[in-house]
Amino acid sequence: MPASTIRGVRDELNDPSQNVLEEIDVFFAALRAATGAITGYAQVCMVPRQWSVGYFVDLPPVFGATYRRFPNSFDNYGWAGSGQSVVTARELEDVRRLYNLILGRREERVAIALKRLNSCMTRDDAVDAILDATIGLEVLLGDQENQALSYKLRLRAGALARLSGTRKPSDVVASVKKPMKPGQQ
């Protein structure tokens, strides 16, 4: 920590650096991806090990800051209500495995996908959640080639049509390919 005074150390500990928050977000992304749990955090606490800038009686010093990284449904003690996610010991092993895999793949596209996953899982607006999920998947699963965006959209629209079963995928691909006429929606 660059602080040179006791006050500076306290300030640094009460305002975690970006890399600390990124590590916490990686853990929560692994937790969400492995379990589908609806979760989040509201505070980051740090306890110095084997050193201190001061004590109150014999209590360990605790430093921390508050953050809003949880869904709105957790407001007003919503996190304490029934129906909350339960994570089993077996799922925690999956979380650990996934977390270690993420730490081993420090790529920008993985970091962006995880950030979008965390955003998706804390949104109340379904449209925004779907956009975050789509962007995350596109970044994570996209190819390395510079294919035209319109080509990708046509293929994906066709794939979605096939899933819905309402239209032939080839018809949807052709419709998406056609340029729109002025005034057409």
Q: How would you portray this structure in words?
A:
- This protein is mainly α and 185 residues long.
- It has helices spanning 6-13, 18-35, 89-104, 108-122, 126-141, 149-164, 169-177, and strands spanning 41-46, 63-69.
- A two-stranded antiparallel sheet has the order 1-2.
- The longest helix has 18 residues, at 18-35.
- The chain is elongated, with a radius of gyration of 23 Å.
- The model has no long low-confidence stretch (mean pLDDT 81).
Short description:
By secondary structure, the protein is mostly helical.
| Largest sheet features | 2 strands, antiparallel
* Beta-strand segment tally: 2
Say what oligomer this is: single chain
Contiguous runs where pLDDT drops below 50 for at least 5 residues:
none
Q: Please state the CA-atom Rg, rounded to the nearest Å.
A: 23 Å
Question: What is the terminal separation in angstroms?
Answer: 56 Å
- Percent strand: 5-15%
Question: Structural class, judged by helices and strands?
Answer: mainly alpha
Global morphology: elongated
Strand order of the largest sheet: 1-2
Q: Mean pLDDT score, rounded?
A: 81
Helix content: 40-55%
- Helical run tally: 7
The run of helices and strands is: HHEEHHHHH
